[in-house]
Amino acid sequence: MIPYEKIGKVAYGGDYNPEQWPKEVWREDMELLSGAGIDTVTLNVFSWASLQPNETTYDFSRLDEIMEMVRENGMKVCLATSTGAHPAWMAKKYPDILRVDFEGRKRKFGARHNSCPNSPTYLKYSVLLAKKLAQRYRMYDNIVAWHVSNEYGGECYCENCEKAFRVWLREKYQTIDSLNEAWDTAFWGHTFYDWDEVVAPNMLSEHFEENRTTFQGISLDYRRFLSDSILNCYKKERDAIKEVIPDAAVTTNLMGAYKPLDYFRWAKEMDFVSWDNYPSNEAHYAQIAFNHDLMRGIGGGEPFALMEQTPSVTNWLPYNALKRPGVMRLLSYQAMAHGADTVMFFQMRRSVGACEKYHGAVIDHAGRADTRVYREVAKLGEELKSLGTRTLSMRTKSDIAILFDWDNWWGIEYSAGPSVDLRYLDECLRFYKALRCQNFNVDIVGVDTDLSGYKLAIAPVYYMVKGENDHLIRKFVKEGGAFLTTFFSGIVQENDLVTLFGYPGKLRDILGVWVEEEDALEKGVENEFIYRGKKYPAFLLCDLLHLEGAKEEDEGGYQKDFYKGMPAVTRNDFGNGQAYYLATASNEAFYSAFLADLCKKQGIEPVLETPAGVEATSRENENGRLIYVLNHNQQEAKVSLPAPMRDLITGEVYEGGKLVLGAKDVKILERI
Ligand code: GLA
Ligand code: ZN
Predict the structure, then answer these.
(1) Parallel, antiparallel, or unpaired for β 513-520 and 569-574?
(2) Do residues 668 and 627 lie in contact, with contact meaning Cβ atoms separated by under 8 Å?
(3) CB of 350 closer than 6 angstroms to any ligand 1 atom
């Protein structure tokens, strides 16, 4: 849980690095930040080198001063542990802390997020630092949260990781025989006789490209292992903090749909989920919303923290366009609309050197308040102050679940065939975007979720069905739910071994189809099918399927090629519900029409009907229900409200009729 009581409003602030500045600047910062309504600062994100100048010395004097200053100025603190970048002396003295990359090259000191997760040195000293910080600052009751490391990620293929991989495998498979079976090592004479023969899969061994591996099972397990190894680093620091401060609220800043880490497993270890939102300027609002909903989903639907976003500009894109006037405010409210209870930035003051000196900040190099960005931050600061606790701790209610799974993501994209263009996230987004653009609230849930609370569950490209997870779907449909999945589903079990005797494997009886073959269409090549009298394109993959109890939902199957006439969309009545199979990929118009039909059939209502580009979501709790209306358009938009409502931000009342929203404007509406 986000510790709301300590803040009493949406926490507003972000990364603050006074250690990069002389003290005269600190006082100025405090004035400017307070003036912008900033109440929470994330401190100490990258200070390991100064906190521990050598192996035996710790020096907290500067951090002490910063902590004091911040407290005196009435600010809350999110205290980071600084372990996202190790000190140079440590790398020199203990090279085991340095990573080995995918090409097998040992890294030297440099950059950040650079420590081997299985380095004994890293584990020892990162945990010790976390413990010392907890001991030293435990008395500060203005600490609202602990921020372990920073944006964990990346990979390592060093010898320590290889050794740890073998231990991980031994725990998982127990015997070398079951390992051989799981990886189907009879293929290409890969039989292992001893655990020590197993090596890390990279360009020196199984891979010939990043995503192309001769043994999917090995590469998949290495992904799982790395995600667990890095998670272990987090857990160890968290435990060290909690040993000293048992009720500390501990988090680490995640990165939305970040492929290397299985965030469903991570979120279980976090007191609350927090994440950093850096969309490109071209990103569609539904793409940003997907990340928010995913971050809410991994945390079981609980509110999350927006830990970072830029107030204006990033520095790491090829073209770092400014966030246009109103966009920072709009995206801040969009985060809240999807479950965020904080609005935080990277960063408070723009640094003077290195690669982030042109990254946006509340205070820029001019060091003054009369800038566009500062004014926008200050205005939002005022609004959030006036909202107080009104928006906090509310939940999103949704009748629709999209099943999302990192193992599926990894498995699909390691797959040799059927198509290199198949991208898991893109397929998930097709469904999500169609729903989001029609203002349906969507929960993104794990594949082991009990779906009984939902009316519609969608599993885009449900390639890998692990264990008995098919029973969750079977039960859901039997009890009256509508389930929808696509081509390339039910193909393998958890080790990437094919489920034999007909695709879609374990889902076959639920869907009532047998997929005999799959045709991969090159970019630009299309087939067609007809749905409700309209022709839609079929591309990417086309399943050639036979009905085994299901009925055809399209009109006349594919329109071209040798499989002309084979169904492209099917429905199976199963128990009290229906299971739909979409045998190909199509365009936005199709997903919109098809999903609108399914929602209608299932009695699912959108939050609000709005013109294109205007997003609406809702959050609720025992105190009521709020509707967020966000105009992502460059021009004003008119929205019809079904009942009289009041805007929480301005207090304006709309007695029914039309609400006019300015370009990029936001309303948070409650019924009156
Ligand atoms: C990430 C990091 C920050 C900063 C920003 C810049 O989110 O966590 O330290 O580098 O990116 O966009
Ligand atoms: Zn390593």
Answers:
(1) unpaired
(2) yes
(3) no
- CA gap 166, 171 in Å, rounded: 9
Residue 512 contacts residue 570 (beta carbons within 8 Å): yes
Whether residue 312 has its Cβ less than 6 Å from ligand 1: no
The partner residues of 571 in beta bridges, in order of sequence, read 551, 580
pLDDT band per the 50, 70, 90 thresholds, residue 387: very high
**The one-letter amino acid at 533:** G
pLDDT, average across residues 116-130: 98
CB 631 within 8 A of CB 613: yes
Question: 486 forms bridges with which residues in the sheet?
Answer: 582
- Closest ligand to C-alpha of residue 200 is 2
Residue showing tokens 């971050």: 295
Which residues have C-beta within 8 Å of that of residue 180, sequence separation ≥ 6? 186, 191, 192
Q: Is the peptide bond before 460 cis (omega within 30 degrees of 0)?
A: no
- Residue pair 451/399 in contact (Cβ under 8 Å)? The answer is no
CA atoms of 318 and 471, how far apart (whole Å)? 46
Query: How far are the Cα atoms of 393, 649, 664 from residue 672, in angstroms, in the given order?
Result: 21, 15, 25
Top mutation candidate among 17, 112, 150, 358 for ligand 1, by most atoms within 8 Å of CB: 150
Instruction: Check pocket membership of 147 for ligand 1, CB cut-off 6 A.
Output: no
The reply to whether 31 belongs to the active site is: no
Which residue type does 569 have? V
pLDDT digits (tens, 9 = 90+) for 200-221: 999 999 999 999 999 999 999 9
Say how far apart CA 361 and CA 44 lie, in whole Å. 17
Q: Tens digits of per-residue pLDDT, 619-654?
A: 999 999 999 999 999 999 999 999 999 999 999 999
State residue 523 phi and psi, 5-degree precision. Answer: -50, 135
334 lines ligand 1 (CB under 6 A): no
Q: Which two tokens stand for residue 588?
A: 């936005």
The string over 468-489, giving b where at least 16 C-beta atoms fall within 10 Å of a residue's C-beta and e elsewhere, is ebbebbbebbeeebbbbbbbbb
Give catalytic status of residue 206 as yes or no: no
Q: Report the separation in Å between the CA atom of 17 and the middle of ligand 1, taken as the mean of its atom positions.
A: 12
